[in-house]
UniProtKB/TrEMBL annotation, chain A:
The keyword Cell membrane applies. GO terms for molecular function: transmembrane transporter activity. InterPro entries: ABC_transp_permease. One of its GO terms (cellular component) is plasma membrane. PANTHER family: ABC TRANSPORTER PERMEASE PROTEIN YPHD-RELATED-RELATED (PTHR32196), RIBOSE IMPORT PERMEASE PROTEIN RBSC (PTHR32196:SF72). The keyword Transferase does not apply. The chain crosses the membrane at residues 6-28, 49-69, 89-109, 116-136, 156-178, 209-232, 263-282, 294-316. It comes from the Bacteria. Keywords: Cell membrane, Membrane, Transmembrane, Transmembrane helix. This is Sugar ABC transporter permease. It is a multi-pass membrane protein. It is found in: Cell membrane. The lineage of its organism: Bacteria, Pseudomonadati, Pseudomonadota, Alphaproteobacteria, Hyphomicrobiales.
UniProtKB/TrEMBL annotation, chain B:
Keywords: ATP-binding, Cell membrane, Membrane, Nucleotide-binding, Repeat, Sugar transport, Translocase, Transport. GO terms for cellular component: plasma membrane. SUPFAM superfamilies: P-loop containing nucleoside triphosphate hydrolases (SSF52540). Residues 7-242, 256-503 form the ABC transporter domain. Belongs to the ABC transporter superfamily. The keyword Membrane applies. SMART domains: AAA. It is a peripheral membrane protein. PANTHER family: CARBOHYDRATE TRANSPORT ATP-BINDING PROTEIN MG119-RELATED, GALACTOFURANOSE TRANSPORTER ATP-BINDING PROTEIN YTFR. One of its GO terms (molecular function) is ATP binding. It is found in: Cell membrane. This is Sugar ABC transporter ATP-binding protein.
């Protein structure tokens, strides 16, 4: 086993190991950590981030970035709330549709007008946020409690929260697309070497278009769950979601430069960062220490640093391997 | 042999911004033939290939391929029609598996999803044809360059190419790997696939090619069977010289006075790094202009990079002044009093949007700064002096370098290094891409600098420039310094002979 191989394995499975260790720690230390109530509330809350991170994962694998996901989710939640009186499905469709619209703009800016993803999605981030505030008239928009819209976010299905089922379905679909369709493999090829991929005759533009579109749609879906779960469309929610999503993707071992990534590890990354916060709450509950919620950011930041340093090492090894042959 | 023609290109013209890159070029490849395409830098080889693969649109001419007129507008389309190109920098995706690199673009599916098992099998089978057994699931970057090269070829064959174009495929392979590649080429030939082989290593052409087409100045000047042409003819056709003497002076270099030349400043013994530089030895004395001659890919620039500390030596040693010289990075060489004007001014030399003054001061900055603050006045004086001395035509020190002509840009670069007061200046193709008048000015400038005691290492692909300019000429061939000529012995015949055949016994008589 070469050192390169070792680091690459750590990059791939390190997040799963860390997740399991964290769960083990919580189980041994806190009484109700693995209780039904805690598990389902962690899953319910983090499923929104999971959806956003899934879209982000695909975008990052092409070597791009989508900064607009947080505001898109906020916009989605407002639009879904506004349409919720018309029925559950219409509210759901409207929220996702709003997300797809933002995704369409991103995709067009990046692939047709060749604007750098960072800049393009920064612009749509501001625009989506402004639109959400305009539509909501600068306050949260209550959803309809009569149409059954709230059951998306609040009810259970086979004992588990519906948002968790939605996220699970999305991840299974994402996994299949990434591993068993040519578009999925194309995503990784584009991120690994865009010029070579073009020379290979793959539809580079179409692949990139699709990932931004998907990222927008998933963010819209997260917005629907947000509105349904908290009973209101929230125009000022979603701030910093993009950073959480990027962190989760990177902690999951996906290279920020693109070309290498995993759907499963992204899910593990989301859970790791989410459960870290949960553990912190339990720790505060024990009364020994009193750590403010800000500590979660510090700890998440540390995790991110460790992973990025590991990735840099992996990349350096890889380059060396290519050079020395 | 011409009974079954696969590709025929006739009367191809291509102009870039009015300047002809190809003029009435013609190129014919028979089925199952390995055809070499050679020529100096800028001869039009890559333009011809890019016209063929649809990367460029031709301005005039006919192309027929496989019996039909051939019109493609992109490399993908060319690939779909049976022409695959393997580029010098391997165009694959390093993080992805061998299978993906071979099969992407024509995946196998079962029930609408990718059928990994059969794709892996196909990749294995394709590679096995070249006697490569590898775990096709591992990422490409874990394999050596030769295997990566084979993967590129396997990909080309997987697309059932009728013609495979290989652009300098051996430049990063070692001898054994080259052998494997040649076997692959012979096998392709047996299977009726044609190969266009671009290389600068003449021995390789004789080993594997059937015919050769030589290009010069955008024209295809000669096509011949490899059996019927001597190496020396290849070289002279590429350089455009007949073996007769050309009389008179072609450059602005004038005779030099021997007494300007001092003691040995730099001596390099048996330098080596990788495949490109294998065994290069030379010496340069103060006040001497030493020339490096050789074909493209002979290792001239790479040797200069070793001297300047850009690349690290794998073997060999250098002495500079009286001390052992082991530069680890360019700043070591600069500190020792060396300067390096690179061949590629645009990407490695000038900063186009900075002013003449800023460009000139870049290397000097660390010296001029007093506790981090740059002495503005001293800077202005130096810049003005060099603009005057070198005759740089600009509106003033603050004009942006991008607005200057090529010759004046080169002078700014010279100024940059001269401001350091160097003892040794390396000039890589100092007059390439510069108009005739400015060329002469640069050449006289080089001479007068040497007269003032500066040691100059001049790399040039123009024979007359090294012959008339250099006090001694070292000929490099395939990474080995094969011959050394003094001023009297450095004739075109002698130089071309050494480039073609190497190990010429002229070394002894040439020593002064």
């Amino acid at each position: 086993m070469t050192r390169t191989r070792w680091i690459s394995l750590l990059g791939r499975y390190g997040v799963v190991v860390a997740l399991l260790l964290l769960i083990l720690f919580g189980w041994l230390r806190y009484d109700y950590f693995l209780g039904f109530f805690n598990i389902s509330s962690v899953l319910r809350y983090n499923s929104m981030f999971a959806l956003v991170a899934l879209g982000m994962c695909f975008v990052i694998m092409t070597g791009g970035i989508d900064l607009s996901v947080g505001s898109t989710a906020a916009l989605g939640s407002v639009v879904a709330a506004l349409f919720s009186p018309q029925g559950t499905w219409i509210g759901l469709g409207a929220g996702v549709g709003a997300g797809l619209c933002v995704g369409l703009v991103n995709a067009t800016l990046v692939t047709r007008l060749k604007i750098m993803p960072f800049i393009a999605t920064l612009a749509t981030m501001l625009a989506a946020s402004g639109t959400a505030l305009l539509l909501a008239d600068n306050q949260s928009v209550s959803v309809s409690y009569d149409s059954g819209f709230t059951s998306i976010g609040q009810d259970n299905f086979f004992g588990f929260p519906i948002p968790a089922w939605i996220a699970l379905a999305a991840y299974v679909a994402g996994w299949i697309i990434l591993n068993f369709t040519s578009t999925g493999r194309g995503v990784l090829a584009v991120g690994g070497n865009e010029d070579a991929t073009r020379m290979m005759g793959l539809p580079v533009g179409r692949i990139k278009f699709l990932v931004y579109l998907a990222s927008g749609g998933l963010a819209g879906l997260a917005g629907v769950i947000l509105a349904s779960q908290f009973g209101a469309g929230q125009p000022i929610e979603g701030v910093g979601w993009e950073l959480f999503a990027i962190a989760a993707v990177v902690v999951g071992g996906t290279l920020l430069t693109g070309g290498v990534g995993s759907v499963g590890a992204t899910l593990a990354g989301v859970l790791l960062l989410g459960i870290l916060f949960n553990v912190l709450n339990f720790e505060n509950g024990k009364g020994w220490i009193s750590l403010s919620a800000y500590w979660q950011s510090v700890i998440r930041g540390l995790f991110l640093l460790i992973v990025v340093v590991l990735q840099a090492k992996l990349a350096a090894r890889g380059d060396a391997a290519v050079r020395d042959h | 042999m011409d009974t079954d023609i696969l590709l025929s290109m006739t009367g191809i013209d291509k102009r870039f911004a009015g300047i002809p890159a190809l003029s009435a070029a013609s190129f014919t490849v028979a089925r199952g033939e390995v055809h070499a395409l050679i020529g100096q830098n800028g001869a039009g080889k890559s333009t011809l290939i890019k016209v063929l693969t649809g990367y460029h649109r031709r301005d005039a001419g006919e192309v027929t391929f496989d019996g039909k007129p051939f019109e493609v507008s992109s490399p993908q389309q060319a690939q779909a029609n049976g022409i695959s190109t393997i580029y010098q920098e391997i165009n694959l995706v390093p993080y992805r598996s061998l299978t993906e690199n071979i099969c992407l673009g024509r995946e196998k599916r079962r029930f609408g999803l990718l059928d990994w098992a059969s794709m892996h099998r196909e990749a294995e089978n394709l590679l096995q044809r070249f006697n490569i057994r590898a775990d096709v699931r591992r990422p490409l970057m874990e394999f050596n360059t030769a295997t990566q090269q084979m993967v590129a070829i396997a990909r080309a064959i997987g697309f059932s190419a009728k013609l495979v174009i290989m652009d300098e495929p051996t430049s990063s392979l070692d001898e054994r790997e080259v052998g494997v590649l040649f076997n692959v080429i012979r096998q392709l030939k047996q299977d009726g696939v044609s190969v266009v082989f671009v290389s600068h290593k003449l021995d390789e052409l004789y080993a594997v090619c059937d015919r050769v087409t030589i290009m010069r100045d955008g024209r295809t000047v000669k096509t011949a069977r490899m059996d019927d042409i001597e190496k020396i003819d290849l070289v002279s056709s590429m350089l455009g010289r007949s073996m007769e003497k050309t009389e008179g002076h072609a450059t602005a270099f004038t005779a030099r006075d021997e007494k300007n030349i001092g003691k040995v400043l730099l001596s390099a013994d048996n330098l080596a790094v990788g495949q490109i530089v294998q065994d290069v030895s030379f010496t340069i004395r103060s006040g001497e202009i030493a020339g490096f001659a050789g074909l493209l890919g002979a290792g001239r620039t790479e040797t200069a990079r070793l001297v300047f500390g850009i690349d690290r030596l794998k073997a060999g040693a250098m002495t500079y002044g009286d001390k052992r010289f082991e530069p680890r990075r360019p700043s070591d060489a600069i500190a020792a009093g060396m300067g390096f004007c690179t061949e590629d001014r645009k990407s490695e030399g000038i900063v186009p949007d900075m002013s003449v003054a800023e460009n000139m001061m870049l290397a000097l900055m660390p010296k001029l700064a007093k506790s981090g603050v740059i002495d503005e006045k001293a800077q202005q004086e130096i810049v003005k002096r060099f603009i005057r001395q070198l005759g740089i035509k600009c509106s003033g020190p603050d004009q942006k370098v991008r607005e200057l002509s090529g010759g004046n840009q080169q002078k700014v670069l010279l100024g940059r290094w001269l401001a350091m007061n160097p003892r040794l200046l390396i000039l890589d193709e100092p007059t390439r891409g510069i108009d005739v008048g400015a060329k002469g000015e640069i050449q006289s400038l080089i001479k007068s600098l040497a007269d003032q005691g500066l040691a100059v290492l001049m790399i040039s692909s123009e024979l007359e420039e090294v012959i008339e300019g250099a006090d001694r000429v070292f000929v490099l061939r395939d990474g080995i310094s094969v011959a050394e000529f003094g001023r009297a012995a450095a004739t075109e015949d002698a130089l071309m002979g050494a480039m073609a055949h190497g190990n010429a016994p002229v070394v002894a008589e040439a020593r002064i």
